């Protein structure tokens, strides 16, 4: 039965894990559903062969951290793109309460099972996030009710589990009467459960005493205390055609011999802060080479925290660093960056090329590329602050993944093989507050970028100070 289920999911050769629901269900199937089948009573006849085969590949399969991260990614997509949980469970990426077309329409719709929804809700429940746990557990309870009495090889949870967790979520959210109703329903299926029976008595007493204050709608948690969250999410939700006003396009040589025969195709995206997009900056073959070089070295991305660097929920991606000696393609790319920017990229005036992969729900909340404190690890290079950023899009995405500039109120969609350039510092060396930007979550697809951060030392005669100290 499990084999038939897996075969049905993979019968379409064009089905791609670009779809976040398909990616989540694949991770869950590899992490929890397979072991559930392998160690089931029905596998006893071939138990040793199954165990041996499973042990051979177990280390390569997704772990608990991967599965929980995938669940959090679905909640992140739900929040940032204002998606309906019921719609997501049915394979539709529709904004909640919206009559507008879906943000993403996969070629093949993939729905989530009751057990899938339960796992997402359980991840939220375990962190005390009842805003998300209620929405996902409600969906799980509804689906479990429809299939109650039938056994599914992939299910590790049940209607009773979903009711139990949903009742406590409502209790913690202040809705005692609904918690009582769900607990009573639980006891119909498991009347001998003393813990839930005590909960029923407790909820009845609280309601009789009338001490329960009426509660408003649950507030969505803001774990990273993001002050600009509404603007950030509105920018991420903008349709691709509504991102940018037309400014100017030109062929640029920048006075550099490298660009005389093939000028750069520059589109000025914004004036303050100055942001330019260089189209066809890299070829498909070069992009694939850089992704291939970085692939074996990818590690979870870190952020600066005081004088240290650490992992953070507000940056979900994997990254690797490439020296210009790694491959002639990297060296040629650095020469091209030097040509369009007119800046000195020789060590230590610029950092190595950073290659970043944003997978399922990958994102980077609003941040500055330049250091805002002298204690930042960026200053260890002894070459000053980051004066400029060049970000090259190495892949296309089907939906999401835009680069949003929060205070300037615009966003740039992913344009495959293009390079985005902006100044992080003003001419007087101060950080430009208008460059606060974010990588919107990838809604569908696999986003790859390459970042080149250039420092202020070595650029004194290439970008000199202005006569106006405020500039």
From TrEMBL:
Keyword set includes Transcription: no
Domain Fe2OG dioxygenase: residue ranges: 349-456
One GO molecular-function entry: L-ascorbic acid binding
EC number per UniProt: 1.14.11.2
Catalysed reaction equations from the record: L-prolyl-[collagen] + 2-oxoglutarate + O2 = trans-4-hydroxy-L-prolyl-[collagen] + succinate + CO2
Zinc among keywords: no
Family in the record: Belongs to the P4HA family.
Protein name (Swiss-Prot/TrEMBL): Prolyl 4-hydroxylase subunit alpha-3
Source organism: Rostratula benghalensis (greater painted-snipe)
Lineage: Eukaryota, Metazoa, Chordata, Craniata, Vertebrata
């Amino acid at each position: 039965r499990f084999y038939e289920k897996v075969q049905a999911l993979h019968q379409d050769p064009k089905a791609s894990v670009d779809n976040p629901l398909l990616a989540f269900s694949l991770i869950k199937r590899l992490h929890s559903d397979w072991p559930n089948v392998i160690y089931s009573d029905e596998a006893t006849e071939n138990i040793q062969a199954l165990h041996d085969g499973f042990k051979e590949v177990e280390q390569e399969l997704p772990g608990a951290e991967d599965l929980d991260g995938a669940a959090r990614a679905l909640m992140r997509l739900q929040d940032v793109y204002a998606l309906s949980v019921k719609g997501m469970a049915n394979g539709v990426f529709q904004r909640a309460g919206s009559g507008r077309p879906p943000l993403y329409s996969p070629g093949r719709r993939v729905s989530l099972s009751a057990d899938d929804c339960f796992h997402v809700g359980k991840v939220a429940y375990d962190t005390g996030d009842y805003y998300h746990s209620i929405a996902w557990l409600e969906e799980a309870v509804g689906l479990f009710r429809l299939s109650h009495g039938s056994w599914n090889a992939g299910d590790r949870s049940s209607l009773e589990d979903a009711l139990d967790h949903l009742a406590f979520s409502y209790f913690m959210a202040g809705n005692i009467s609904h918690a009582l109703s769900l607990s009573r329903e639980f006891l119909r299926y498991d009347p001998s459960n003393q813990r839930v029976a005590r909960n029923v008595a407790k909820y009845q007493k609280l309601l009789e005493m009338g001490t329960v204050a009426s509660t408003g709608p649950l507030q969505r948690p803001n774990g990273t205390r993001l002050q600009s969250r509404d603007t950030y999410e509105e920018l991420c939700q903008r349709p691709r055609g509504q991102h940018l006003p037309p400014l100017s396009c030109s062929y640029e040589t920048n006075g550099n011999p490298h660009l005389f025969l093939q000028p750069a195709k520059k589109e000025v995206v914004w004036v303050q802060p100055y942001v330019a997009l260089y189209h066809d900056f890299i070829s498909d073959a070069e992009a694939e080479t850089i992704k291939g070089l970085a692939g074996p070295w990818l590690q979870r991305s870190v952020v600066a925290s005081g004088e240290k660097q650490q992992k953070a929920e507000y940056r979900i991606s994997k990254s690797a660093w490439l020296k210009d000696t790694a491959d002639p393609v990297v060296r040629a790319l650095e020469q091209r960056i030097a040509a369009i920017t007119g800046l000195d990229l020789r060590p230590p005036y610029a950092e190595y090329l950073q290659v970043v992969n944003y997978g399922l729900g990958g994102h980077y909340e609003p941040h500055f590329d330049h250091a805002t404190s002298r204690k930042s690890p960026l200053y260890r290079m002894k070459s000053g602050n980051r004066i400029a950023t060049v970000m090259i899009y190495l892949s296309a995405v089907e939906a999401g993944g835009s680069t949003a500039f929060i205070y300037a109120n615009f966003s740039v969609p992913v344009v495959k093989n293009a390079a985005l350039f902006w100044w992080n510092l003003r001419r007087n060396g101060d950080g430009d507050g208008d460059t606060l930007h974010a990588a919107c979550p990838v809604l569908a697809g696999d986003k790859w970028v390459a970042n080149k951060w250039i420092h202020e030392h070595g650029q004194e005669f290439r970008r000199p100070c202005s006569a106006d100290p405020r500039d």
